[in-house]
Amino acid sequence: MTLLDFARGPALEFAFAVFLFGVLWRLSSLLLLPWARDRSVARPGVPSRAVLAAGGFVRHLWPAKPYLRTALFATINGYVFHIGLAVIVFGLAQHILVWRGLFGVSWPNLPSGVVSVVSVITLASLLAALGRRLTNPVVRLLSTVNDYWSWFVTTLPVVTGLVAVSHLWAPYETLLAVHMLSVALFLIWFPFGKLMHAFLVFLTRGETGVLYGRRGVKI
């Protein structure tokens, strides 16, 4: 078995299994916890929980005015690399083939040159996020190994993908195998680190919106 066979076979299969099991375990362990009953009196005319949850999510898509100046860079940069990662994962033809193999669905791909440019921008944005984490005294103080490792496993597939597409330093089959292994590492770590916020953000912001709405909080 070659390195490429291992990467696109057992390694990715194991990584997907860990990813699915880990995400389901994290979500179920949270949702099945006993929920404390909110005994506060809801304000008159309060919308449904679904409306309040959606409002709470939308409300936090942009910083509140008092914090806009200090949070503007982090917010915009966060959107840049999140959107960039989505374009890479769902826009590259080779990745769409993977999605079709997994779920039997596909869609038109973006030109490879466009995805390459987006990948470079995304990498620059991720490096900027790391730079802010290292240079901002408050953010640096609050950062843990979890933050740095989550950044690393997110950035590594972008780097290895760019190197593979550029055919640099090694045969393409080896570069592709390394890229797939980096994706496997990302999937394995995803449920157990801060990358899980991709799922939990909807729950946490939604529940915050419900709490705000019941008590008449407006921000």
Automatic annotation (TrEMBL):
Question: What are the protein's UniProt keywords?
Answer: Membrane, Transmembrane, Transmembrane helix
- TM spans (from-to): 12-33, 79-98, 110-130, 151-170, 176-195
UniProt keyword Acetylation present? no
Its name, as the record gives it, is: Nitrate reductase
**Species name:** Microbaculum marinisediminis
